[in-house]
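Pasting two entries for a bug report.
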Amino acid sequence: MDINSEIEKLIKENDVCLFMKGSAETPQCGFSMTVTNILKYLKIHFKDVNVLEDDKMREGIKIFSDWPTIPQLYVKGEFVGGCDIVKEMFEEGKLKELFQSKKII
């Protein structure tokens, strides 16, 4: 399976999918930690994908989304954004609204 197919499969099979450095339990960078903490605070069940385990995944997700940084959050197949966007949406209440509109919470 090529990397794009693998990414599409992960996004399709998981309502909330976070491509990150490290895992939800042990984030390996501050930006990934910030996003996981926000999702945990909102009590969102999510699939964590550790891009540090696979260089093809690490580079592939950047090309797939046309977004240069990690972490990257997908909700119901839709790319939401990276740390700054997720944090801003959370602070404005828009992230919770997104999860509610997608019937996640």
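Entry 2 (this is the one that rendered wrong in the viewer):
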Amino acid sequence: MIGGRMELSTMFGMLMQGFVVTLQIFALTLLGAIPLGVLVALGRLSSCKPLSWLMGVYISIMRGTPLMLQMFAVFFAPYYVFGISTGTGYKFTACIIAFIVNYAAYFAEIYRSGIQSMPRGQYEAAQVLGYSRSQTFFHIILPQVIKRILPAMGNEIITLVKDTSLAFSIGVAEMFTTGKALVASQRTMVPFAIAAGVYWVCCLVIEFILRVIEKRLSYYHD
């Protein structure tokens, strides 16, 4: 502290501590939402009408209501619905659950569009070659679907980086929450500027990684 004002390095260090929580939310959401989205998409495409309808309702609710409201629902439901008291540690758990079920719905629709865009001849050729339905999907269809949906998935992944800031609504102290506290205590916009720069750099890194993956998956190379 110099003259009552916090040093820039101290601000940056505090923001980086919050950024660690931001990265945890980001990583755990992807870890849960990507495979869950596949299951939801397969359920949506299922020939079992009740299952398909149920997955359609789930997707509609998740995409049609704010993520912040979903976090409130997950956080308060154990007590107000089931009478179960939760500790302070449940804040982070509730945040992760809400993010996973929300993003799984968006990923599921991206998967579904990719799967349905595949020509019917791919399935017929695989059947002639003696592939089972599961082998056809995982060895022939899915690799091609991944290439087709990567740009759309990239957009959602970048959006997720910024959406992590919504965790403040239930008291999870990620980078935005830390920045807001520093702005209020230090009466300066510098913490917000630093946070904005960190978010931007993080998105640039993700964009670079996605471009590399797209290039590797491209059918044509320079």
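Dev reply: Rendering is fixed now. As a check, the viewer should reflect this: The chain has one domain: 8-217.
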